[in-house]
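It is worth pausing here to work through a concrete case rather than discussing structure prediction in the abstract. The textbook approach is simple: state the sequence, then state the predicted structure, then interpret. We follow exactly that order.
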Amino acid sequence: MTSSSGSPEITAEPANPPWNLTGSVPDKPSICDYGYVVRGNAIGSTREELIKALVSRGPGQIKLAWTPETPHPVFPDKIPLLAEAFQKITIREAWKNIGWGSALVALGVVLGLVLQDWKFLYRNLLSVFGALAVAEGVWELWRSRRYDQEEVEATASSLRFDAWIGKKHISGYTFTLCAWIVIVGAAQAVSFEDSITRAALVKPAVWQGEWWRLFTACLMHGSFMHFWMNFLILLHFARIVENTIHRAYVPLIFFVSAAAGSIFSVLLYPHTTSVGASGGLMGLFGFITTAAYFDRDRFPPKYLRRSLEGIAFVGMFGLIGFEFVDNAAHLGGLCGGLALGWLFRPQREDVLLKVLSERISTLSTVVLVLLGILAAVAVTKILGYW
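Step two, the predicted structure:
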């Protein structure tokens, strides 16, 4: 779109979401037609210097910029002439992912050659992450071919959304859920090998009546790295749910989705032993994805597509690392989260669900109490008290 003067027209969003709030904006110097803002300081430049600065520093450092067409400093992604700079940044980051990902895959190849066991290509967690990094880099390169102004704004808004979410504190609902997981993890640290046998999702034991393993396994993990990764992902997803939908949904979604994941695992992988909160995490991911579909005003533009891409990459991770990933639990948890997102979608006229939605705080408190009881069951079983 072009203004009457022939210059690109700067369009404004009808509503400014919280992650796009800039705070105080410095005045642009009257002697400089172009420039940018770094750490609250306005720095004048030429057109070429502005483009070069954005490419070298990135939007993480250059929060705002201005041109003759902007009445005041605005987000760099709102300035059409900087679209090419954003495209270069995307291509550069894509090649970085391809580079370090290829290095990790090469490490797996070297281990396979040295140890004469090619299973290290898919049993080695670093190789799996490397393959995913390469796939992500290739995907970003492919997308960058059609990197228009709309794509620039959607990507930048998502990055600001992530930064905004990262600064949020968790509520008591998420804190309590995390506490149960930490307590069970501490018990596992005392006797790890015994903990797997005593409280994990041992499928034959479940069929013999130890149904509580469907839930205790969701509070356990297979290693410290497994625990730490899941813990960070839980905090991230929980912050998104708390700050876009309602804080009380977190334990309820986790509990239902984790149970669904365990049931899927028992039915589809009947001869394996499983642990981990991944089913609950995939449920939170599925719930966020459904929410982004039904209520897009709460999320950045194209966030639904981003969520679907994330789910696809999780699926790819499961296919590459099938030796140590419980894909059935991931699938069950995702289905549980998607189902809850559909049930609690906005504007649904079901009277019962309206009542549940209005009493979600009470319902989630009950769930947290149940999880606390299950955590106690897991700890006492792991420590050999019964």
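Step three, interpretation. The CA atoms of residues 57 and 225 lie 32 Å apart. The radius of gyration is 24 Å.
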